[in-house]
From TrEMBL:
The lineage of its organism: Eukaryota, Metazoa, Ecdysozoa, Arthropoda, Hexapoda. This is Phosphatidate cytidylyltransferase. InterPro entries: PC_trans, PC_Trfase_euk. One of its GO terms (cellular component) is endoplasmic reticulum membrane. It catalyses: a 1,2-diacyl-sn-glycero-3-phosphate + CTP + H(+) = a CDP-1,2-diacyl-sn-glycerol + diphosphate. Residues 1-64 are annotated as: Disordered. GO terms for biological process: CDP-diacylglycerol biosynthetic process. PANTHER family: PHOSPHATIDATE CYTIDYLYLTRANSFERASE, PHOSPHATIDATE CYTIDYLYLTRANSFERASE, PHOTORECEPTOR-SPECIFIC. Belongs to the CDS family. The chain crosses the membrane at residues 88-107, 148-172, 184-203, 215-234, 240-266, 278-299, 358-380. Keywords: Lipid biosynthesis, Lipid metabolism, Membrane, Nucleotidyltransferase, Phospholipid biosynthesis, Phospholipid metabolism, Transferase, Transmembrane, Transmembrane helix.
Amino acid sequence: MSEELRRRSSGAAESETGETNKLGTAESNSSRENLQSNLRDSEIDSEDDKFGRKGSIDLSGSIPSGTDKAPSVLDQMLQDLPDKWRNWVVRGIFSFLMLIFFLVVIYGGPLALMITTLVVQVKCFQEIINIGYSVYRIHGLPWFRSLSWYFLITSNYFFYGESLVEYFGVVINRTDFLRVLVTYHRFISFCLYCGGFVLFVLSLVKKYYMKQFSLFAWTHVALLIVVTQSYLIIKNIFEGLIWFIVPVSMIICNDIMAYVFGFFFGKTPLIKLSPKKTWEGFIGGGVSTVVFGFIMSYVMCQYSYFVCPIEYSETLGRMTMECEPGPLFRPTNYKLPEFMCGFLTTFGLPDSVSLYPFMLHSLSLSIFSSVIGPFGGFFASGFKRAFKIKDFGDVIPGHGGIMDRFDCQFLMATFVNVYISSFIKWDSPQKLLTQVLYLKPEQQLQLFHMLKENLENRNILTPEV
């Protein structure tokens, strides 16, 4: 009897010990899971990531597309056409309207072109930065959207100010209250940027650090692509309208003719990033661009309005576009190669040809715009495919957003500016005079005496008796 009681009590003790061990194991597992969960949460940078929002990013539902968009009236008129021809008509109509707008802006002169460039720049920045907001899904964070636009304004103040100081500095210096802005322009710009940098650091929020820094980088890349390129466009305009109009027109011509040749004759795919691009369109657009650029250059070289740089005239007391066209825009005789001369003289034809030197430079511009320029579009296509969007926006029916139309223009603007500084530009007396006029009157007088003494010592100037 007593032995049976011992056995029962021993079994109860073992049962209780087993239950205790199980409970301890369960609590241990639960603690381990909680610890692992806390560790995972500490590694997650955003609350959005806790809900499994990972993998490829699809923004097709949040970024509007304009390629297939058309005004309701036009949509009803074309509803019986196949989709391919409907898109072709819509695209053609709005291409024509954009061409008319472009001609009107050119007629408005340099100021109208500067304002248009600024508007296009702001819209392109907005389209790029909106994609960034959609990618990183940051909502309600303090200051962040405002900071993006603050950096845009600061960048524009610096770059546009650089242009104004370079070309309008003499005029601005004659206005007392603006002279400080010219003298300390870069310092003021740096202070403005530092202010934005400090505000960004103060706006950082726990668990959003990675996304905030990513969007900060996104903003600066957008500024690099958009603002700096528009600054180069402005510099090209001030070198003479022909350095802006001809390259821009080449890109437009290449885009249109590549589309037309690809639409009617395209069969061979060109690049996987843009399945609709074909070799037939690429080659047809390139040949058309070379011919178009050569003809357009010949026409524009005959008008001083297009070829004269924008400079300050001391005589007129204002900025002017009147000048005597330089050697680049005056007809020059070029002797043809020997193997052609014998053939031509046989038929009584001249062995030389008269051309504007700029026409030869236009060949370089047209080759770049037709061979390298399209890669700006391919780059944009790859960017859009990365986020599964068709267009940057829906501002222009049949085309998409503003960035969809200007993706190649920015690359072209950089090339033109580099080309001018490498092969065209030289220091002229007018440019040097502009720099001299920045000096104070006593400094100008000192420079005059130094220059006079130097010329007399080299017997270039006869000393006064």
